[in-house]
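Hi D.,

Good news: the full-assembly prediction came through. Inputs first.
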Amino acid sequence: MNARLETVLGWFRDANPDVACLQEIKCVNEKFPADAFEALGYNVAVHGQKTYNGVALLSKWPLEDVLKGLPGEEEDEQARYLEALVSAPSPIRVATIYLPNGNPVGAEKFAYKLRWMARLRQRAATLLALEERVALCGDYNVIPEPEDCDDPESWRGDALFQPETRAAFRAIKWLGFTDAQAAVGRDPHAYTFWDYQAGAWQRDHGIRIDHILLSPQAADRLVDCEPHRSVRGGEKPSDHVPVVATLSDCPA
DNA sequence: ATGGTAGACCTTCTA
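Then the structure:
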């Protein structure tokens, strides 16, 4: 996060999002550059962790009902989930999600990924029952369909593309959520991540793993959703690009 | 061909 602060701030000045979800900030709360975002007019909530993981939620509207950590496993100390109510005139409850990578398949990390996804499904069901506008946003580390990657065969053995992983993602979606990028007709499978290695960006060997899931009340307001692909070719890029959803104030 | 890069950090782990 701090290594790429200028890159991120540049994107914020251009895109000017009302709400933003960050993942993999890789720092404790005290080291998150909250003042830089506050200077741009954002309210900041951070659930940080040293070296690994860490998530943050930024909003031009006040944040209420802040929940840090995904419920359901008391001994889980990895900072991968933060949720808050964005108290705009049309409020929306937003979660920033850094779902476990899960590699290698067959080891404890993969079991942890599947447990984490089961817990996310529980939380998602609880949120749906509120019948509010809800957006679950972030790095899901899930390639939902073969069309969401350049070469499905090369991902066959990877935790991001296992049948169990994809089924767990569908199970969350089928509770009643809309995959915002898939729902808008234009480029539904456009990639959101290109590895730093082996010229993945230059060869367009990308994958779509960053998702925005919307409750029915939020999906009713969906106008557009697209990854900001061009930033991947910029200075000091992340290996992920922002996925931006536009919601209207009134039902479409 | 199991390669290659990046970040935070205790010189290795995670992705």
